[in-house]
Specification:
- This protein is an alpha+beta fold and 695 residues long.
- It has twelve helices and 37 strands.
- The chain has a six-stranded mixed sheet with strand order 34-33-32-35-36-37, sandwiched between helices.
């Protein structure tokens, strides 16, 4: 991809141990963990470099801000942007590291060629979006995660969200599966678990206690009780574990495949021993060139292996950890590929197969790594085939903590994937959970500036310019890169379609319809704010100087009044209504004080409903289409509105002239499904383009 060279060489590389892999900020500074980089070969480093520069080139940070979404959802937009970038890299033959890279097929309902915004909407509607929407726990623990070999006594600090510690308090620690939902505040009555010392109450929200006996690995709940009320939070006890890159070897692998082992809660050294076992537990002589990269990462070369399920075991001193390694089996990509300990059931996993075709005769089973790949009876339920390479797998019982191998058998083939259960959750000031499989690409992928990023103004520790890219230079780089892309496409014709779309939109930009709508709303607001008139509702203070004559006072400006007519006919899709919801929220914010009146309209207009929060918006309909009645209903509202916005697909008859009931209002049409003929000239037409800039 030589056409990206101007952008690639504008990137400033910054080594740091504060990020696990690689990320990039809005000033094109690419932060990389040296340990991670040492586990890659040259082609994989190229893939990382190309991936990261794709975020600032495609303005993912600006596009996320333009959505007006809550900032805590930026991990989902990061994943959506990854899908779009990686889809084009794959089309260009670029090799990415053997990590859980995001592609459109990993998101239910997504298709290749979708924009980041379209994929983001699908993620928000899925399990990850629902998880981010949940509230924070009622109790915050420090520490929130312990190693399996934690010492005792161990002091734990608990900080409550509500002030309820008004007297003597008690604490109980239970296995997570035996208590009320975490984060609930509920009456007392849960059974006592591990032994603890007395609770020391420091203030109405803070207490501490000591654990007097070790906890087994897994997920536990700490329940703090005072005066008949309790609050709870999770405490995770972790066991040493390893993950592999790649975690699956294809049939066409090289004769001496390099495998990276990443440890968690374990430490590698020169004395670490790597073994590979077959399904019968026999150690195979296939390991060579074991090389510790750091205390938590090592690499080794793997010789020829028969097809089937294998185990990789790493022994360091008296500690032994292992992970599953399918060899030569068709690959199965699971989403999610990690579940919390004591997870609820049933839970559905989405599986995308590679080099395999599923059918009605396909079956699934779960193998437990800790038990030597023994099958777990009754772990799987219905297997739903959604396509030749896509299945939904239902788990019908909670799986024990640890690593498992999910195997789907079909027509003599066995597609396999690893599934991890349990493990520590992230802790810190962020009140929202991080979606499974999230690998932060930095603020250039959307969201606020990260703690590990450099100065926002591009200055180094001495206050000098650090050579990073400011907004003006970034735009010049985008323009030059777009010209490079189109020139390469004309001369060689080997540019992925997504990059060609991006280049065309960069050099021939389409006016952002959101900004155009916001501009109209602002102009109406400014006009209304500038209108000051006389009113007899309150006499002027000057009336005292003119006995017998009442003088009017000057009326203060008011917020603008707006009405929105929403097409709810059968031709309007859920995606179109989703855009209406998003933009109504922006209009509500602009028309603070008076809110917005929304009229649902198909062939008839419903009663206008005031909306002060987007959550109040309820749209019903589904019949024919005639926006004339909705526009007339908006014009008849009293007091008169200043702005009438009609959101429709445009397949409707239009009024020939402004409604006589309110001819002075500003009338805007949002065309949700592309441009249409026939919109009268007295209405301001805004065409809602498909989300995004080509990717």
């Amino acid at each position: 991809m030589p056409y990206l060279s101007d952008a690639l060489y504008a990137v400033k590389a910054v080594p740091t141990a504060e990020i696990p892999t690689v990320g990039i900020d809005t000033r094109w500074r690419m932060y990389y963990n040296p340990e991670f980089l040492l586990t890659l070969d040259v082609a994989e480093v190229v893939g990382v470099w190309l991936h990261e520069v794709g975020h600032p080139l495609r303005r993912h940070h600006e596009r996320f801000d333009a959505l007006g979404e809550p900032q805590e959802r930026h991990p989902l937009f990061n994943q959506a942007g990854d899908c779009a970038v990686n889809d084009d890299l794959r089309a260009a033959g670029v090799r990415l590291p053997a990590v859980k890279a995001w592609f459109p097929e990993r998101v239910p309902g997504a298709d290749p060629g979708m924009t980041a915004e379209q994929i983001y909407r699908l993620l928000v509607a899925g399990p990850a979006g629902r998880e981010l929407a949940e509230g924070s726990p009622a109790l915050l623990l420090l520490p929130a995660a312990l190693r399996r070999d934690h010492g005792v006594p161990l002091r734990v600090l608990a900080r409550a969200r509500e002030e309820f510690l008004t007297g003597p308090a008690a604490v109980a620690v239970h296995p997570a599966v035996a208590v009320h939902p975490v984060g609930a505040v509920h009456p007392v009555g849960a059974p006592v678990g591990a032994r603890t010392g007395p609770v020391a109450v420091h203030d109405a929200r803070t207490a501490s206690f000591e654990l007097l006996e070790p906890l087994p690995p897994g997920r536990h709940v700490v329940e703090l009780t005072c005066a008949g009320t309790s609050a709870s939070a999770e405490l995770t006890v972790t066991a040493p574990s390893i993950s592999l890159r790649p975690d699956h070897l294809r049939r066409d692998r090289s004769a001496r495949e390099k495998v990276v082992v990443v440890g968690r809660d374990t430490r590698f050294g020169d004395g670490s021993v790597v073994e590979v076992l077959d399904a019968a537990g026999t150690v195979l002589d296939v390991v060579s060139d074991v090389s510790p990269v750091s205390a938590t990462a090592l690499t080794f070369r793997l010789g020829p292996l028969d097809e089937g399920a294998h185990l990789v075991r790493v022994r360091t001193g008296e500690e032994s950890v292992q992970a599953a390694l399918p060899v030569g089996l068709p690959h199965l990509e699971l989403t999610p590929d990690r579940l919390p300990g004591g997870h609820d059931v049933p839970v559905v996993l989405a599986g995308v197969g590679e080099d395999v075709s599923f059918d009605a005769g396909s079956t699934a089973q779960v193998l437990e790594v800790a038990a030597g790949l023994a099958p777990l009876a009754g772990a799987t339920g219905a297997l739903t085939v959604l396509g030749p390479a896509v299945v939904d797998l239902e788990l019908t019982r909670p799986l024990p903590d640890g690593q498992h191998l999910v195997v789907v058998s079909t027509a003599g083939e066995r597609a396999a994937a690893t599934l991890t259960v349990g493990g520590a959750r992230r802790s810190g000031p962020a009140p929202r959970p991080v979606p499974a499989g999230y690998d932060d690409c930095g603020s250039a992928a959307g969201g606020p500036r990260r703690a590990w990023e450099g100065d926002a103004g591009g200055r180094d520790a001495d206050g000098e310019d650090d050579g990073s890219v400011d907004a003006g230079r970034a735009e010049l780089i985008r323009q030059q890169t777009a010209r490079n892309v189109l020139e390469h496409a004309r001369s060689r014709g080997t540019v992925p379609a997504g990059w060609q779309r991006w280049a065309n939109l960069t050099l021939e930009p389409v006016v952002d319809w959101r900004r155009e709508l916001l501009s109209v709303t602002r102009r109406v607001s400014a006009h209304v704010a500038g209108v000051r008139d006389y009113s007899y509702a309150r006499p002027s203070r000057r009336s005292a100087s003119t006995p017998g004559v009442v003088l009017p006072a000057m009326r203060q400006p008011r917020p603008p009044r707006a009405a929105e007519v929403v097409d709810t006919s059968a031709s309007i899709t859920a995606e179109m209504l989703g855009r209406v919801h998003a933009e109504t929220e922006a209009i509500v914010r602009r028309c603070h004080g008076s809110g917005v009146q929304v009229i649902a309209c198909d062939a008839a207009a419903a009663r206008a409903r005031p909306v002060r929060r987007v959550q109040d918006l309820a749209l019903v309909g589904g019949g024919g289409t005639d926006m004339r009645v909705g526009i007339a209903a908006a014009a008849a509202l009293r007091p008169r509105v200043d702005l009438v916005i009609t959101a429709t697909d445009g397949d409707t008859p239009w009024p020939l002239r402004p409604p006589p009931e309110n001819p002075g209002a500003v009338y805007v049409v949002l065309l949700l499904d592309g441009d249409r003929e026939g919109v009268p000239g007295w209405m301001r037409k805004i065409v809602v383009e498909r989300d995004g800039a080509g990717a």
